[in-house]
């Protein structure tokens, strides 16, 4: 055996046996298409779902109009237009908020936060609208639930600290982060899906969490698995793009 051959062989990385087992498993294209379509429909990406259905030669499981309604509600929440979002939710199904007190309170609190933003940013700093809304809409609900009361008290603290310059403490700053809107929007989307008799969560999300759980258990048991195991969701090719630049980023929180 020549020295050059030995050099090449020594420099070739050895694939972990566990990774070879993964590579031997070939999921069917039908199953993959089903999971991708389920994600696009559940998360509310109608243009991407329509394009994927045509490319994969499969049928949309729900009418596009029902997906579009959830998209409009999500966009309204992300934009801070909570009043419009609540109106659209009630137009779609008034029972959703009537039967989910926690979700309804979360939306009302977002609306209060937007009022506080508006009141404290104006030249007059008239906080009357925020106080009136909190008294009429949130206080009665908070009186019946300790968690609601705690959230309301924290939110009202913004009236004191938001107009001041300087950095807010972490709990208050988080109330103003876009992530709070996204979290509530996700909960609303799940509630709408469940009201329609569908799964409240995309199968892809539950599968990724299951995979993370399995890896944690394997490491706790000292199983022979690679030190780093990527979820494989980072590549651009795995972010379906629909018409009008609609992106369906695969994110599991």
TrEMBL record:
<dbReference type="Pfam" id="PF10607">
    <property type="entry name" value="CTLH"/>
</dbReference>
<dbReference type="InterPro" id="IPR006595">
    <property type="entry name" value="CTLH_C"/>
</dbReference>
<dbReference type="Pfam" id="PF08513">
    <property type="entry name" value="LisH"/>
</dbReference>
<comment type="function">
    <text>Involved in the proteasome-dependent degradation of fructose-1,6-bisphosphatase.</text>
</comment>
<feature type="compositionally biased region" description="Polar residues">
    <location>
        <begin position="1"/>
        <end position="17"/>
    </location>
</feature>
<feature type="region of interest" description="Disordered">
    <location>
        <begin position="1"/>
        <end position="20"/>
    </location>
</feature>
<dbReference type="InterPro" id="IPR006594">
    <property type="entry name" value="LisH"/>
</dbReference>
<protein>
    <recommendedName>
        <fullName>CTLH domain-containing protein</fullName>
    </recommendedName>
</protein>
<dbReference type="InterPro" id="IPR013144">
    <property type="entry name" value="CRA_dom"/>
</dbReference>
<feature type="domain" description="CTLH">
    <location>
        <begin position="66"/>
        <end position="123"/>
    </location>
</feature>
<dbReference type="InterPro" id="IPR024964">
    <property type="entry name" value="CTLH/CRA"/>
</dbReference>
<dbReference type="InterPro" id="IPR050618">
    <property type="entry name" value="Ubq-SigPath_Reg"/>
</dbReference>
